[in-house]
Specification:
The chain is of the alpha+beta class. It has 7 helices and 25 strands. The strands form 5 sheets. It has a 14-stranded antiparallel barrel. The termini are far apart. This is SH3b domain-containing protein. InterPro entries: SH3-like_bac-type (IPR003646).
């Protein structure tokens, strides 16, 4: 009886080792003598199609729902709600399914790896006993991130993992801690993954693949380059990965990368974005196994509210064809003259949104002072001046059109994608004037073109934006 139990345990250990190598495609998790050094290699598998196509070099990027896997600190800087569904036909009849979502600094995910039915064999019946079993690995977790400053955020993830092979199973808990610093173009990420206790399977304990990742990323108007170093503590080894992503008209993304971990290699992929829906594909190669193809569909379903003060600075809501009181009219003329002066003095080279907004705010302060002085000098003789002008605030007064003259409706568009490029003409062949973050509202000047809208920027310049990056 004891001998049979020992054989069963030995067979299950061999089966676990074989499935780990075969299914996950990570030969380096085991030493040459067959002793497995870490448990749940599923935890090391790249989650997220976009990140996988970039060689898993993503902890310094972390700007979509994949942040729940690569760096939860990124959740503190994501401005829109997102959800993704991923499916992969893995090695040797193994399927992988994952779903993840983020909303206002919080996220959740569920990932499952499942094999087809496998014949049970014994030493006495090597061709099979007629019984079957399957392996099922699962990870379920929640994440949260918060911004400490405009550039720095931190976050954490708690997850439950399980592994089931036939009638044997194991469960446990693990966590991730992340840090992310992002400036205009640079990103620096640090994350510690899979912090937890050892997993017990049958009569042995296996350490989790606790990993420390550090990454650096550079992001331009259409190009992202990222690199990452990962130190897998239980295995005492360091691996590197690099990734690149380029966008064409902010609609089509081309990606490639390289993962130096043993058994891995080059990666590639692409993405297509139409309004709030994005489809991503990744090609992941292995040295000793066939390459796999990964596919996902993502949806953006909400945005964080942009403060009214920001919209007041970014948009001009004064109707053009109105007749108002003399003082208000003079104030409007002064503002128009100042706007024309700003337009002439505006730099023609591309500028960052932060610099752009800082300039606008500074000019708005000057205009407020001018309006305040003008209103104070005339308030005694002009009691009908609107309250907004008398107090010198930046809010726009309600203006009444002349009798019999209709009010001109000001059309606006709202940016739906982050870092949306503004072109100098209606097409990607024209130069990029600047990029605008998600949620900003701009005045619509011309919507007669088929694919592009002409908009008015806060500094008075005119530009063109693709219809896929905004909505009326």
């Amino acid at each position: 009886m004891v001998e049979n139990l020992d054989k069963k345990a030995l067979n299950m250990k061999k089966l676990l080792l074989s499935l780990t190598i075969l299914l996950i495609g990570m030969p380096t998790i085991c030493w040459g003598n067959g002793a497995c050094t870490t448990a749940m290699p599923f935890l090391k598998m790249g989650m997220g199609v976009r990140a996988s196509a970039m060689g898993k070099a993503f902890c310094a990027v972390a700007n979509d729902d994949s942040a729940v896997h690569y760096n939860p600190a990124g959740l503190g800087q994501i401005e829109s709600g997102q959800m993704s569904l991923e499916y992969t036909k893995w090695l040797e009849d193994v399927s992988y399914t994952g779903v993840s979502g983020v909303y206002h600094g919080f996220g959740g995910f569920a990932n499952m790896l499942l094999t087809n039915e496998i014949q049970t064999t014994t030493e006495a019946q090597p061709q099979g006993t007629g019984k079957t079993f399957r392996e099922m690995d699962g990870i379920f977790g929640v994440s949260g991130g918060i911004s400490l400053t405009n550039h720095i955020s931190v976050g954490g993830t708690g997850k439950v993992y399980s592994q089931e092979i036939g009638n044997e199973n194991a469960k446990g808990f693990a966590g991730d801690i992340g840090f992310l610093c992002k400036t205009k173009q640079m990103g620096l990420g640090l994350v510690v993954q899979n912090i937890g206790t050892k997993m017990r399977f049958i009569d042995r304990k296996f350490a989790l693949p606790t990993t420390i990742r550090t990454g650096l990323a550079w992001t331009g108007s259409w190009l992202t380059i990222s690199g990452e170093m990962a130190n897998i503590l239980p295995e005492k080894k360091t691996v590197a990965c690099v990734g690149l992503e380029g966008w064409l008209a902010n609609v089509i993304a081309l990606r490639c990368g390289y993962d130096s971990e043993d058994g891995h290699g080059p990666t590639a992929g692409f993405g297509v974005r139409l309004k709030n829906v994005k489809i991503d594909y990744a090609f992941v190669s292995y040295e000793k196994f066939e390459a796999i193809h990964r596919l996902s569909v993502s949806v953006k379903f909400s945005s964080r509210n942009v403060p009214e003060s920001l919209n007041a600075v970014v948009t001009e809501r004064i109707p053009e064809q109105t007749r108002i009181a003399p003082v208000a009219e003079e104030t409007t003329q002064r503002r128009d003259q100042q706007l024309d002066s700003d337009k002439k003095a505006a730099p023609q080279a591309p500028c960052s949104y932060d610099q752009w907004l800082a300039d606008i705010k500074e000019k708005e302060k000057v205009r407020q002072k001018q309006s305040s002085v003008l209103a104070t000098a005339t308030v005694a003789t002009m009691p009908s001046i609107p309250a907004a002008l008398r107090t010198g605030t930046s809010s726009v007064p309600t203006l009444q059109p002349a009798a019999g003259q209709p009010t001109k409706q000001v059309k606006t568009i709202t940016i739906t994608n982050d870092n949306a490029p503004i072109f100098s003409g209606p097409g990607t062949k024209y130069s990029v004037i600047t990029t605008v973050p998600e949620g900003v509202e701009l005045i619509l000047v011309d919507d007669s073109k088929q694919w592009y809208y002409q908009v008015k920027l806060p500094d008075g310049r005119l530009g063109w934006i693709s219809y896929v990056n905004c909505q009326k």
